[in-house]
Amino acid sequence: MVQTHLGAQGSSGQWNEVATAVATAGAELSWHPASTSLIAPQDRSLVVFVQQGSSSGRIHGPSTPATPFKAIPAKLGVGDMVLLRPGFALDSEGPLGLLVFARTQPFDAQLPPVIRPDFDPQITDTPGGCATEAGAYRRVCLTWQGKNGPYLDQHLNAHRVRIRDSFTHYHPVDGGFDELYLVQDALPGSELIVCEQLDRLLQPGSVPDEDAASLLRHIPLHSGDLVFLPRGTAHRGLGGVLAQVITLPGFVPGAEIPVDDAIARVNRSASTQLPRHHAGVPFVAVVPLADRVRIEIGDQLFTEYLHQNRPRPSFYPVLSPDGRALTRSFPFETSPGEAQDHPHHVSLWFAHGSVNGQDFWHNPEARMRLLEVRDAYSRPGEGGFTAVHEWIAPDGTAQLRDERRFRIVLSNQGYQLDWDQRLSALDQPVLFGDTKEGTMAVRLAAGLRVEGEVASGSLLTSNGHRDGEAWGKRAGWLLASGQLQQRPASIAILEHPDNFRYPTWWHARKYGLVAANPFGVHDFADAPRHSGNFKLGAGKSLRLRYRFLFSDRALQAAEVDAHAHRFSASR
User: Fold this and answer.
1) Which of 226, 242, 269 is the last residue of a domain?
2) Does residue 279 lie within any of the structural domains?
3) Range(s) of the domain holding residue 36
4) Which of 11, 173, 229, 439 shows its CA 20 to 30 Å from the CA of 320?
5) pTM greater than 0.90
């Protein structure tokens, strides 16, 4: 397996390795990083992949006074292909990054000069290959088999595909084909998992336990990568890769040999558990955008982490597995039956009303500023990311640093969100004041409230306190259940036993606010003022961990207890 990057990160040595491998497979490969003109030689056909840029262009053919050729206009962008016959040329108004395969074989007369897989109505999603799941994006551009697409070519095949989790497979050395991944986009954390010791993988008894971990290699993928996978290399694409998968000399039906069962056999006898494909597990896509992080589960929106142009970041909307809103729409939007009070209650968020005397609960001038989103990853059944913030007082001074690690998991109860937060003092101590106004909070959708218009909800704590009795009580978890659109739904909030002052007090109101607050001792426990103050020393950190369960049915206390037991064992 050889890999290069079509950009500044690549090296001439890596490029030469890929080009040599492609030449061995029967084609000449070249990279044109900023091309406005490309001409096919008189003895070569060119298969051109647009990898960078977008532009209007024209295809020119050989022209004589007796047989003039009318130029073909073309709008080109990333993902498109151009097929240049000998002597034909491509001119574009703007620069394009072009990956070009040259070959001696002619094109079929029926092939068009431009193939646009995202726009051609004859090219539709065809699950299979590296994207077998229902609803997969896979556009077959050039194929051996007419059942897969309209454009046939026997010497080079290509399909543009979003690979979330392909099954692990290889193409046999005898009768198989070589394959290239031309990565055109990739979610953070995307990778190829490859095995270049196929004989050992297929004979697991020959692999000592201490060698099992070395059987598979993880190759990070980024937009612009070009990876050559020779036949006989087992591989699995994972994490949300959008790629042109190119096969030389062409796809051979029946030459994709699965090996996940072989990996399972190794796992049964080894202490190391090698990663393998599990069919049918919904994919959790974590997509960082300019002003938010979007989280989709199986092509359906779950939530978005909104972090720009607002005092405090929050998750909104928060949807159940069947697509109903579990948190209040206001102040982002309005929805029938909702109260439009407390505009600082922003769906699902973390804040506190007294931090070095500053009110980060109510005051919009006290803000949390995003520093970075990192460590994002997308996987079948799980995804996550980390967001780092500074808490900025109205006078512009930073009060503390806040690192939040989020993990989204599918469970039998629905969707699970783990919130792991470190609050770190900078060069001065941080005083968290004793106030009920905080802290780890959710504002429930109207139907989940205990009281109010269209309210049908109930509150229950791990200690058995219900509804209004839950306010100010200490408990390891709280469950809110009710009816939304005449169907049951639930939200549970669990606190980790290692948390500061576990079990926490609950600022749980019948009108729909539910918040875990370890600082409001005066209000909750009728203690002297400032009893709940906590000073975090300069350079020190406070870790707080919570687990949210979002369900489209009425969760039972025993189910939440079981989750709490598992959560307590996590570190």
Assistant:
1) 269
2) no
3) 2-63+70-269
4) 439
5) yes
